[in-house]
Design brief:
Elements lengths: L2 H19 L5 H15 L4 H38 L1
Helix pairs in contact: 1-2, 2-3
């Protein structure tokens, strides 16, 4: 199994986890796994791919998670008001 296939499996697994929980936690790691996938297509070492995956996911989650949750709550409230 090649590294790019491993990253594709990780992406699929994280998408399934995100869909099943809807807590906007693994979404950020999906994005960083996509970046690591593209790195695997080049000559990037595996440990760098993993480092980008972990640090990128943590960075994105810490930076954008609260903003996204706030936006989703506001969107949900607008949808509920519109149905009434």
């Amino acid at each position: 199994m090649t590294l790019d296939m491993i990253w594709i499996l990780i992406i699929i697994l994280l998408i399934v986890v995100e869909i099943s929980t809807m807590e906007v936690k693994s979404f950020w790691f999906v994005l960083s796994a996509i970046i690591s996938y593209f790195l695997s297509k080049g000559e990037t070492e595996f440990y760098i791919q993993v480092l980008i995956f972990l640090l990128g996911g943590i960075f994105l989650m810490s930076l954008l998670r609260n903003i996204t949750i706030k936006y989703l709550k506001e969107l949900k409230e607008k949808i509920i008001k519109k149905k009434m």
